Amino acid sequence: MKNMLRVFLVVAAIVSSQTYAQRGFSDSPIGIGGGYLANYVMPKVDGFNKELKNFGSDELSTSGMFSHGGAGFGYIGFLPNVRLGGMGTGGSMNSSVTVLGVTREAEYSQSFYGLTVEYTLPFIKSVGVSAGAILGGGNTSLTLSASSPKAWGDFWNEANNGSTVNYTRKLKANYFAVTPTLNVDIPLSYLVALRVGGGYTVGFGESWKLDNDKELSAVPTDVSVSSAFIQVGVFFGFFAY
User: Fold this and answer.
1) CB-CB contact of 122 with 81 (8 Å)
2) pTM for this structure?
3) pLDDT confidence of 225, banded at 50, 70, 90?
């Protein structure tokens, strides 16, 4: 993924520089850049929360969680207003309850990466308003644990005998995803731009595994890997909208 992003950005830089040298500033945006993204993700966790009631931890938040990562893009001169790039983000949230010295915890994590294809609307000047999509994949996992304080000897006695209240279990899924997006890039100068945007990740083809990559079957249909998100970011490079 990183190598593909480097290739895209290098090619875009060459094409953008050639276009700029030949045409100067024009009606078509020119630029290349990369930077930091902070996302607020709203995953669908209702299917997990149904089971967490029986597990004994609190439910996961249905309002959302924070994630962060980075992205980069470059305009390609031979297709006016079109830019290519790549991105990747990840984040997690958890819930826990402690009863009689035993802490039951659920940790939900999500990561996403992909190639970006966007079209910047030519009739909007001074800022870049771009509609497009992310083509890629992701990983969603849920880790359950029950734990309590132990002495060194007690830990090894329980490990050797196979009897303990302490344990960790993990469910995870890899999947493909298509994400329609809308981003607004606001240049503070030709070298720095702020971004505000969002999208909806549609996950499909998920393959669920448990613990040490063993297959998990009969996963309920309300356990989803899709999610909506909003994002803000700061980008550095060269931007002329």
Assistant:
1) yes
2) 0.82
3) very high
